[in-house]
Every structure is written in C-alpha cells, then in structure tokens.
What does this fold into?
Amino acid sequence: AKDNVLGGPGRGDRNVVSGNKVYGVVYYGHCTRNTTQGNYVGTDITGTEALPNATGICVDCASHDNVITGNVISGNTSYGMFFVTRGTEGNRLQGNYIGVDATGAAALPNDIGMVVSTGATDNLIGGEEPGQGNVISGNTQAGLMITNRLTKANRFIANLIGTDAAGSQAIGNRHGVVISTYPEANLLQGNVISGNRSSGVVIVEYAIGNVLVGNRIGLAAEGDRRLPNEVGVVIDEHAEGNIIGRQGEENHVRGNTAADVLLLPGAGPDNTVEHNRTGRGGEAR
It folds into this structure.
C-alpha cells in the first residue's frame, strides 16, 4: 500500500474510525508514503466522547516513511498509537492529540497513549517546527512507552506529555514516559513532561544509552510555574549508560513533588546526570 491518503486537512475530509474490535487503522507489510490526517480515531463524531477501538493506529511489519498528523487518537481501550517490529522506520507522528479530546483541554484516555516497541527504529514523534509536537496526556497508564530489544534511535521532540494543548494545565498520565526492557539510544529532546500522576520519566530494565536533553520536567511550557510530577526522573533496574542533560542542553527538572531526579541503587553503571537545572532556584547541577 503506497501513496494513499486517509482524511485530510479540512473538517469535511475527516473520517471517524471508531468502535472496532481490534485496530482502527493498521499499516501492515511494508506500507510506505501513506498519510493519515485529521481523523477522529476512538471517539464519536464530536471528538469529545469515547467510542473505542482496542488500538487506535498500528504501524507494523516494516511499514516505513508514513505520515500521521493532526488526528485525535483517544478513547481506545488499549493503545492509542503503536509502532512495532523491525523495519518500521522513518515514520512521522506530528501534531496529534493522544489521550485528550478534540479541544485539547480534557482527558479522553487510552489505556497507554503510545507504544514504540520490538525493533521500531528511527521514527520521529514530534518535531522542531511549530505545531509538530504531539499532546500525549490523560492516558490511564503511561503516556509513552519505549520498550524491548532493538528499539533504538527514535526521536521524541517538542511533545507535551501530561499537559493540555497549551502546556499550561495538568492532564496527567500515570507516568509520562517509560523506557524499559533494553531499548537503546532513543532521544527525548525539548519536551514538556509535567503534570503526570506518578513519574515524569522512568528508565528501567536494562534501558541503554538513551538521551534526555533540553526537556522541562515538572514545569509548565512557559516560565517557571510548577506543574509537578510526583518524581521527575527515575533510573533503576540495571538501566545503564543513559544521559540526563549535557553541556548547553540542560533539562529543567524542577518543582516535582517528591524528588526531581531519583537514581536508585538498582541502576546499572555509567548513567550521567549533569548540567541540569534542579531545585527551587533552578541551579545548574
């Protein structure tokens, strides 16, 4: 399947893809250069009430270089978004609402907002241009899970994880981001990861060499106003070689209720936590 378009930029182009027993939309078997845009996936026609699929959108089996943009992917009983298997690469997920309703101001939860798993590589979730970041908030469990072996080199840039679409009010996931079970060298940069009910970021279970730079964890998108997680960043369970902050790319990990950064005894070696701004005064540490 190549060069197909589901939906479009106008209101009249929208599809409502809801109420299905398994997937709303599935890319399967080397699908490439397809666009899914502007649809409601897991909601009713208003975009404010759940009409769930099990999983909203699944990109699977080496489907690559597809674009998923401007959709409401909410209200689903399992995952909102799922990128999975080796060869699933080069896909772009931009400007979507995942776990909130069409207003961007109220929760409409999936169980988990998005899962990137089992060998999906080099996908872009968000982006540096205005409007490319996704809102991944209000989900029952994690907003974002990055998990399993060979899941590497995915980029998560300028998303709002745990807030409303303005980045100013909390619409928490349980955890903002969970990185677990051997994922490697994934990048989280320039995200707001705030307002989540438990942890902002959890790095566990042999997660290796993942990088968090330039994020705001525990603060609103603008200014120094607190929008706390319970804990900002947790590292445990043999996670090793992960980088939290770099010179000139510090994270602002501040205002969290219990702790900003929690490096537990079960963590593996060579985790680096430096050049971040933490504590009440935001000192670089």
User: Anything to note?
Assistant: DSSP finds no helices and 30 strands in the chain. The longest strand covers residues 23-28. The chain has a mean pLDDT of 96.
